[in-house]
Amino acid sequence: MLMALTACSQSPVGDAAGRRDAATVALPAMKTFRGGEQVAVTRSNVSIARDFLELAFELESGRQLPVLSRFEEPITLRVVGPTPASLGPDLRRLLARLRDEAGIAITQVPASEPAGITVEIVSRLSLQRAVPQAACFVAPRVSGWRDFIRSRRSPRGDWTTLETRERMAIFLPGDVSPQEIRDCLHEELAQALGPVNDLYRLTDSVFNDDNFHSVLTAFDMIILRSFYAPELASGMTREQVAARLPGVLDRINPAGRSGVTQFAGRAPPAWKAAINAALSPQTGEARRLQAAKQAAAIARAEGWVDNRMAFSLFILGRAALGQDGPLALTAFLQAGELYTRRSDTRVHAAHVAVQMAAFSLSAGQPQAAVDLVNTHFGAAMAAENAGLLATLLMIKAEALQAQGKTEEARVIRLDSLGWARYGFGSDQEVRRRLAEIAELSPTRRGDGPT
Question: I need a surface site. Which of 1, 173, 309, 348 has the fewest CB within 10 A?
Fold first, then answer.
C-alpha cells in the first residue's frame, strides 16, 4: 500500500469539471447532532487524580496556581451580542449535560440580567486583534468585551490571584462555522468553570491542545464533577485538595477504583515549542516541516509510544504534505498504527484515516478509500465532528463515483453536504471543500482507472 500510494502522493492538479460540479450542486439543510453516549473512562482514579492536580493547579505557561478557585454559588449564564442560530440549541444541550453529568447548578438567564458567566459574541477579527493566537478565550473578573478591553493589562486578569470565581466572560466568534462556535463554547465554558490548563498526554479530553476532541467527554465531566464536589472549596491548596481527592473520585467514579493506572512523564518544553511552531499559521512551510521533524525526533528520544508520539507523527505528516509526499505518507501510516492500538484514540485514528483515504482516492484505489471511511465513520460520529464526517463522506462519494456507483455516490454526497454546512459554515466554503475532494479522483483529472 505504501509503495502504491507514494507514487501519487503529491497534490493533484484539479480539473475544471470538478470545480463546476461543486459550484452548481444544491445544498441540503444543515445536519445537527442530537447527542450520544460518551465513551467510558477506563483508567484508574489514581491516574485521574494526578491529571486533576496538574489541570487545576497549573497554567499552560507552566505557572503554578496557589489555590483552587471555583464558583461557590449557583451559576448563572447569559449570552450577549449577535447570536448565531446554532448557538442556542448547542448551549442548551451543553448546560443540560453539565447539570446531569457534572452535577453543576448552572442556569441561563436573559441577556439583560447580570450573570456569573457572560458569553459574548464578537467578530473573529476583533478576537484576533485582541489575542492574536486565540480563536476564542475566557477571561476572569470581567463581564463583557468592553470590560475586558479596558482591563486586559491590569492585575484583574491574573489567574494566579483568583481565589473564588464570581465573574467570568467567554468571547466567541460569531462569523465562523456552527461547529467552531460550538467547539469554542465547550472548551471555554469548561475553563470558566474549572481547569485552565491543557495536557498533551490526555487522550480523551478537551483539556488537550491537540484539538481532536471538540465536545466535553466523560473524562471532562469527571474532572468538573470533582471540581464542584462538596468535599472541596475555593481557596484550598494543592496539598489540601490532594488529600481529599481520592475519596471524591472513589465516590463519583467507583469504576476507577480498579482501572488502569498510567503515569506518562511530562513533555519537555522543547517538544511543546516544536509542536507550536509546526502548527503556527505565522510560520512558513519550510519552518513548519523543520519544527515537525524536530518534534518527532524529540518524541522518539523520549521513548514515547503513546498519543504524543502519534500526534508528533500526525503533525509531521500534515507539515510534509505538498513538500515531501513519501514522508507525509509514512508519518500518517505510523501515526495511524499507534492510534489504532488504543480504544480511547478512535477519533484520532479517524483524522489520520481522512489523509489515508485521500491518498487512496488519488492513487486510483477507490475501494481502499471506501473501506477506510466505513471503518472510521462511527468514531467521527461519536465525537460529533461534523467537519470530519463531511470530509470522510465526500471522499467516499468520490470513490463510489469512480467505481461507477453513481446513485450510491449521489446519496452519500448529499449526506456529506448536510454535515458540511454545520462543520464548514458558509455555502462557499462547503463548495470549496467539495471541489477539493472531487479533484483528488483520477477520473476527474482525466487519468482514467489505474
Answer: 1
